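Think of the structure tokens as a kind of shorthand, similar to the way a musician reads notation: each symbol stands for something richer, in this case the local conformation of the backbone. In the example below we present two proteins back to back. Begin with the first one, reading the sequence and then the tokens, and try to describe in your own words what changes along the chain.
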Amino acid sequence: MVRHSQAVNSISLRLESLEAREVPAALIAQERTVLEVPAAPIAQERGSLPDSASTAAATVTNAPPVQTVDSNATATEHSEGSVGLPLRAVPRSRFAVSSGPGGTTQVNVYDSATNAMLGIITPFGRDFTYGARVATGDLTGDDIEDIVVAAAAGSSPWVKIYDGGTLAEIRTFLAYGFSFTGGLFVATGDFDADGRKDIVTGAGAGGGPHIQVFNGKDLFPTTGRASSVPNASQSYFAYAPTFLGGVSVATADIDGDGRSDVITGAGPGGGPHVQVFSGKDHKSLASFFAYEPTMTLGILVTAGDLTGDGKAEIATAPMLGGAPIARSFTPAGKAVADYIPFGTDSRNGASVSAQDVDGDGIAELILATGTKTPPQVRVLSGKTGQTMREFPAFVPDYSGGLYVG
């Protein structure tokens, strides 16, 4: 297994052969070369939960006009002091960073190619303080990735969708009954091979490890009107229904049939269990432990072609209380690499998302810090572990944790 670990001004690669094991407790602290990327410190406000998060006044700020350019266009230089929009390829890719519990819940939206922050969304109003989880994908078929926001634990299970071009809210629905307050995990994938992304949700703690898939064409039909309450096209449990730790979700075409498959990670209390289910019929495709089975911190999952071999790898990160180390695997569960973005003195977990931010066909890992840690985001090369970008998502004293998608 390759361990991606960086010392000062260097990258040290160590070849190891090992099976899934416990997250190391102490490794060398990392220092990174910081690329010139924009910081986006946004003040947090505290408040209380509104009567209905669905009707709270969501706001969007700092969103520039959308510019469409030829996919082969390159960036141009601007004279000092001038203002210009970044050139963006079509289709335009996005990633989002959301805040955790404690302050006003907000979502920062970034252009993947340029790292420019496109806007700030407060999806559930300024009094909503429970945090959110996010994903991106083209749900509307306009070649711009949209932003999916799911309420975290403490709120009813709202899902909101924002247009990737304008950041306007375009759809809201409840994934479960109003009384469920365990929060949601969310991802996007194409489960029916129609070229448009669908939404998959995983229930948070207290609701059982329940998976649902909502088709993009049902949420945004090309003809007719969308139903006010979308029906899930797939619904099943990833683990025993009696397990109440929740389930994180990700997607990738693992079996090569042209459809996205669902990757799940067990929440706190259930061991670091990863499972892969067919996107066609939710048949089990793979099952393995990412760390020692006795590790019960919960894990987050993501997937993408991190090595450039044309096949998706699965990556994990400890959800709560663990060293912020991401680990990648083949779909069969063979460990490929460790990624150590923030050092290991922190024991507060990390969030992870695999996305091809530079358009070279190979996914990078976007990692964000957990709770009680300065709010940092780092983009690492999937192949080498080298830091490609680094920036603070919020003000330095914010410590509620981040979620990236």
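Once you have a description of the first chain, move to the second and do the same.
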Amino acid sequence: MAVVTAACEWGPRTRAPRAPPARPPPAPPTPATPPPPRREALPGDDKVVYLMRHGETEMNVWLRDFRAANGPAAVVDLRNDPRLYDTRLTARGIAGARARRGAVAALDPRPEVVLVSPLSRALHTAELAFARVPDVPRRVEPLATEKLWHSSDVGSTRAELHAEWGDRYDVSHLDDVWWYTGGTGDPRAIVDEPEADFHPRMERLRRAVAARPERAVAVVCHWGVIHALTGEAFDNCEMRKFRLSDLKARPLPPWEHTSD
């Protein structure tokens, strides 16, 4: 018997067209890598030193008003000194110190330590101006205190500083009375610090900065200290950059009044 095979024809299979695979969204452009901060090449054992003057104080305001009334060369002495011991920052001085935070945070090279005068106006200025770099250690340096001209330059005792600032500054290395008293033994004596004492102190301050291991040091201090080291006059809260090799102890101007 013949077997008849039925041929089954299969037509071509028709498939629905496939959608092209979805492309991933383009990656956002990679931001350009900022160049590393410029590091100043310093020869030998030279350093970068940032000098900052404290903010405006009650004594600054008093001196400005006193000279406006009595002339720019008017002398402050024991008869008219306002007895603003260890003078404090004004509201304007506080605002000025806070306004320096951005500039301090952007310093290049970054300071590795902040040396601060023990006078309260400098301690307060450093606390406010360096608030954005809390990891930078701060050391109270009595050599950086202002030349004693007025009651405002008479300091607070170690115990008083510890009570007010002890949670922010270590003052344990200070003498109880660390400012100039002219040998009177009276911590409230207003005795003009002679150039014969002040000038060598400024040289000891410069040597103390030089002896430190850091290559970038900030010093928060005073008009007289800065003028003695640089020959330049600073406004309140002004900060400038120097090389240690540019600093030297210089005699102060012959006139006996300052804006501090």
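Compare your description with these statements about the second chain. The longest strand covers residues 48-53.
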